[in-house]
Amino acid sequence: MQKLTYGLFFALLSILLSSCLTDETNKEIVIQDFTSEEYATLSEQLNIDRNIESISTVLPRHMRVNSSGNSSSIDARKALLGRVLFYDKQLSITGETSCASCHLQSAAFADPLAKSMGINGQETKRNSLALASTPSFETSYGSSDNFGTFVGFFWDERAQTIAAQSIETIENEIEMGHDVVALAQQLNDQEMYRILSEKAFGRNNILSSSQIVEALEVFTNSIISGSSRFDRLTDQEFFGENANDEPTWTFQEQTGRSLYLQNCASCHSADMSFPARAIANNGLDVVGDDKGKGEIDGSQFDGMFKVPFLRNIELTAPYMHDGRFATLEEVIDHYSSNIQPHANLSNELRETDGSPKRMNFTDEEKLALVAFLRSVTDDKLPFEERLSDPFKE
Ligand code: HEC
Ligand code: HEC
Question: Is 313 in the pocket of ligand 2 (CB under 6 A)?
Answer without folding.
Answer: yes
